[in-house]
Every structure is written in C-alpha cells, then in structure tokens.
Amino acid sequence: MAARSAEPEERQRALEILISAYWKPVYKYVRLRWDKDSEQAKDLTQDFFFHLLEKDFLARYDPQRARLRTFLRGCVDHLIANEDKAARRLKRGGEVQFLPLDFESAEGELQHIEIPSPGLMEDFFEREWIRSVFSLSLERLRQECEQRGKQMHFRLLEFYDIDEAGKELTYEQVGQRFELKTSDVTNYLAYARREFRRIVLEQLREMTGSEEEFRREVQTLLGVDAP
Amino acid sequence: MKWLSDQALDRLRVAADTPDLSGTGYVLLDKLGAGGMGSVFRVEDTALGRQVALKVLGIVDSSGEFGARLLREARIIAQLEHPGIVPVHDVGTLPDGRVFYTMKLVQGRRLDQHRDELGGVPERLRTFQKICEAVSFAHAHQVLHRDLKPQNIMVGHFGEVLVMDWGLAKLLNAEIPAESNPSRKIRLQQQPLSDADTAHGVVLGTPGYMAPEQARGDVDGVGPRADVYSLGAVLRFLLDDSGRASKALSAIASKAMAEDEQQRYGSVEELANDIAHYLDGLPVSAYPEGPMARLWRWVVKNSAWILLIVAYLVMRALFILWRGR
Prior knowledge:
The structure holds two protein chains of two kinds. By secondary structure, chain A is mostly helical. Chain A is 70% helix and 0% strand. In chain A, α1 packs across α6 (121-147) and α6 crosses α9 (182-207). The two termini of chain A are 22 Å apart. By secondary structure, chain B is an alpha+beta fold. Chain B has three domains: 18-105, Phosphorylase Kinase, domain 1 (2-Layer Sandwich); 108-288, Transferase(Phosphotransferase), domain 1; 294-324. In chain B, 40% of the residues lie in helices and 18% in strands. Chain B has eleven helices and twelve strands. In chain B, the strands form four sheets. In chain B, strands 1-2-3-5-4 form a five-stranded antiparallel β-sheet, with helices on one face. A three-stranded antiparallel β-sheet of chain B has the order 6-8-9. The radius of gyration of chain B is 25 Å and the shape is elongated. Mean pLDDT of chain B is 83; it is low at 176-203. At the A-B interface, α5, α6, α7, α9 and α10 of A face α1 of B.
C-alpha cells in the first residue's frame, strides 16, 4: 500500500489519509472494547498512531492474510494488552507531527452509538470505518462543490441522503422545499452522488495497495457483491 | 463535520452504488439484485415506454477489464436468440465510465424458490426439458454456460423457463457467427486458459453444481459435458425433496453427474432424450431394466388399457355366469 511506499512524500500523504479514516474507529473501539475512559482512550489512540508512524507497524501487514482493518484492530488489541503507559509516553515526543484529532467530536458521536456486544466488535469497527470514510468523502465533496459553484448539488445530497435519510421523500417534494424543478433535483442529485462515489473510490485507492485489496474494500464499503 | 446516522450510512451506500443514468434514455426504478460482476436494476426505457433490466458493473473497473467482460457477456447472450435465454436489448457506458447492458425484464421466480410450486414429477421434468433445450441451443452455438444452478434459472408465471447469468460462459470457438447474417462474425477474445482470469480471479462455478474437471481448474478439459454435470445436479435438486426420484430418474441424474466425464451423457440432447423417454414410459439408457422391471413399466404405461380389458373380461365372465343359470 501507499502508506508503505519508499517515497517519503507519497508515504506521508497516504499515512495522513489512513489516520484520518481510522483514528475515530480506533478511539471508539478502545473506549468500548477495552472499556477505557475518555482520557485513557485519547492517550491510547495517540500511542497507537505514534507506533504506526514510528515503529513501522505497516511493514508487517500482509494483504493476503488479512484486511487492513483486521490487522490494525489486532495491533490495537496487542498494544493495549501489552501496555506500559509510562514507557510509551516517554517515547512519544514532539518529533512526530500528529494530525489534529478532534476527540470531542468522536466522544460526541459515541453518544449516538448503541454499545455493541463483545462478539460484534469486528462489525462495529468496520461500520465506524465506513462512517469515517464517508464523512471524509462528504467533506471533500462539500469543498469541491463550493469551488465549482455547485453548493446546491451538495446541499441536496446532504438533505436527501443524510438529513432526511429515514424518510422516503419524492424528488418533487425536495424540489418544492428548495424551489427547484423536479428534473433539476434529479440532475443535481445524480451529479452529487456520482462525485461522492468518485471521491470515496479515490480515498480507498489511497488506502489500499493492490487492485484486489481495493476491490475488497469497495465491496465492503458500497455493499457490492464480489465478482 | 456532520454526524452520519446508520440510516444515512445505508442511504449513502445505496446512493454511491446507484448508477447515474443521465443521458442514457433510462430511468432508474429499483434494484433487483446483485451478483456476478454487477448489480441489476429495474429501469424504464423512456423511448419505448417499457421496463427492462439493466445490469451494470458494481465493482471498480480501473483497468477496463471488467467492462470488457460485461460487454462480452452481453454479446454472447445477444448471439443466443432462444425463448429460454433472456434477450439483450442494448449496451452502453454510464457517465462514470461503467459499462452496462439492458435485457428483458423477466417476471418470475428463481427455480430454487419455485420448486415446490412446480407440481409433480412430470411437470418438473417438463421444466427440466426446457432448461435442457436452452443449454443445448447454446452448445450448438459453441457456448458453455459453466454456472448452471437453480439460482440462475427463472420460471415465469406461464411456465416459461429462462437460463440467466452467462457471466462465466465460455466460448468453444473465438468467433461466433451471427445467426441472421452468417457472413458477419463477431470476434470475441478467447478467454485466457486459467481459472483466475476466466472467473475474474474469484470463483468459477458453484460447488455442488460444478463438474469435477471444472472444480480442478482444468479449463482445457471443460466442455459440454461440464454443463451436463450441472444439469444432472439441477435434475437432482428438482427431484430431491420427498423422495420423488424413481430408480430410473436417479440413474439419469447419476449418469449426468458421473465423476468421469466420459461416463456422462455425450451431450445435453442425449440427457434430454432420456428424460423424454422416461416421460413416455420408454426405457432410458441410464437404467438397464430386468424382465420384471420392464414388465412393470409396461403395466404402468398401459394401465388404462389393461384396466379396460380387465373390466371387459370381468363383465364378460359375469354375463356368461348369468346366462348359464
């Protein structure tokens, strides 16, 4: 995967994407699976990504044997099971530039989440990863739509597929709400969804190292059956 | 960043998978299912005002390889104009680059979900004969299905049978002559002789319905008799509940599913002939009968006549007895 690339710039960028997509699932997982309080979970999450960056965890990752998610979750478990907090915190210094991790938002999201049973932690971790990737993709879509003057396209997607996801609104109703023709709603939504799909796939491409791994992740993320 | 509820996640997954049909002349109605290389949607053909099924790549096709395969599948089906094979109407590319094709929207149910409603053995065998006819037609056009199973067979409301999902089909020749114009030939790339390539690196066929040579990955060795094996498994599926299979039918299924392909029926037609013989009360090649079995089959076949004759003789005897008093 790109995060193991010998090219420092490529490696750095891929790691940033990987951390962006995984830090929230890791934090939530540590909170719920290991029953840590917020402060402990923050420390452990930072420790985990410190190890990821500094100890080159990813060098040991073999896509043939497991999915990246499974591997990372195993690493988290291993790290916590063998924790030596004082020693680790000494090792983690100011030399590493971490991405700013908004733990408050992650903690806030936990309030919405039903605590999974211990046997369903793998599913939970996967779902939180999907939530994280989709959130990042939506944020990028929002920025791109703003740059292209297509704010309404994004707004419609946000309204129809996120805010009102639990309702079965017709495009006509959406058009009335935004004072748009139904055909415009159809076209705007088609554009936003197409771009959303493109961005999601680009993010996955950055996070995976082979075509096979990429397809597997697409199947997981979009629920598309294996060929 | 906005919190995404589970409902929003599910909605976004669907939204991202939903094909963008703008500019294609089709309007999306709903998703029918997913499998093989892609997903199948019910769409409306706005030009003709009818509903059709649209199959589109569900996976990402960065190399173009899967698009080529889907196109190949569409072309293979398009060559097989037969009532038992779903007709293809159109092929095209979506705005996001994914290849799609449209085909007749089949109204019916999959055989695996419909077996219990098919009726008795004769009705089931007649359904099986229709499956054989479609597959035999494909073989005559040098096409092997290679994934025959109840899930890939649709039964319509009027008993019509359609063999679906030709995604794993194999061309015995690289060129297929178009029926309507023999001089026109569609040149299709011969599949690389490896399982991984043939099946997109995943699965070739379905365990339980796959011939042994196919399961071994012996692509060179896979011929029409591999489909005969799968048809034998389908026959067994049709008769497997509540012990419906007679010895002769069991023998037919066993012969079709012989481990050694040389021991199987030489063609789908031969298999279908044995079924026809069975339905007509004639001996079948798969089941050599002893004298008693032959007599019993003769009795069963002619039971109506035998009953009439017996009734006549009894009446005659009673009449003679009455006259003799």
